[in-house]
Fold each of these.
Amino acid sequence: MDYYKTPEDFKEANGYEINGYWYPRVTKIVTIKAKPALYRYYGAASSFAAANAQTQKSAEEGTLIHNTIEKIFLGENQEIDPGILPAITAFKNFLDKNNIQVSQEHIERRILNLEHAYAGTIDSLALIGGKFGVLDIKTSMDFYRDYDLQTSAYMHALTNDPAVPPPQTRWILRVDQIKTCQKCRSTMRPKGGKEKIRKPYPSLPGVKLCADDQSHEWGPLTGVTAIQESPYWKNDFEAFLAAKRLWEWENEYWLKRVGYLK
Ligand SMILES: [Zn+2]
């Protein structure tokens, strides 16, 4: 549980004021779900402060990639930070090869669900392969199921929003950058200054893994772009509502003080 000095602090940190009413943010609500991989990461770190510093740096790089992609979607020419050039180059190649039409007026669009009283911000809406849907950008190593909780909340809100055509589906667009071992094809992700090394999976026939992590010969930093569609969102939305109820329970003191809960 986080601590706040005043109701205003709580509101600012956890939601949006829309038409004179305050609503909690989707991304805050989903933080109530435990993330075991994150605890393992903290547990393996030399100290809590060191782990926090790395998380912070990794988040900054992620935000930079995220914002750069949104500007590319908006057709804005910009200078690309050399540190994220591999990811952005891979992303541009991906755009050239795939027919992705992003609805520019919906980039960073605020969504509001009056029925369930929450708000959020979507990355964009897009037309991909003839389908219209929510497109969310992530700068992570994998597609995590937790993303489905977040995007199901957007799907429900947009389905009941008269200002946009109802979305048919949702996608996660993943953009990241990694190095690959020239000998054994293990991959390494240097994001945030902390190296995360992974063996090739599935294991490659005839390829012998390096004896230890010091033996790898890392190739150049290379961008990775992938897209995953999850059309069926209603089951995820039930789980989102359960998460929301738990989040409300956790934050009951402040939610009553700001008048969100009676
Ligand atoms: Zn290797």
Amino acid sequence: MPLLKLLHFMALIGWCGALLYLPAMIAASARSGDDGFYRDHPQLTRTVFNLLATPAALLAIGSGTALFLRESIFAPWLIVKLTTVAAMVLCHALCGVLILRRERIAEAALRRDCLLIGLLLSVSIGATLWLVLAKPF
Ligand code: HEM
């Protein structure tokens, strides 16, 4: 397998894995009442965001852009894929906002927002993978 595509896959696994995990981590750290590992270690979510999710996102987008330039692909599926990737980037940024909000105040509404972002992420990651693997148009 070409090394650039391998790099793209490795970065994707790290990025998508961290993105699916982050909303659950933030929601767990915002839960009040019982003892919670994530609630007692709020800096863990920031560490996963800063040291895993963000570098993996930069690597995934950089290697994807290099693949696109090297192979000169201008197919419609790639344009639509870039739109679903933009939705992933938006959710990434929203996870950062939730982490900052969580550090100021623990609120029940935060857990609802985590659920919404988690759902949006599952749909956009699924759509991206379907577009690139099925290449429907
Ligand atoms: C700006 C971001 C991205 C760009 C520019 C990009 C671009 C590309 C390009 C040009 C290819 C080669 C396609 C081919 O050889 O037919 C590719 C492969 C692939 N990309 Fe991305 N990509 C990006 C992000 C993503 C994301 C976020 C995912 C998954 C969630 C993803 C999943 C894949 C997969 C699974 C392949 C392999 C497809 C195959 O070999 O048939 N990419 N990408």
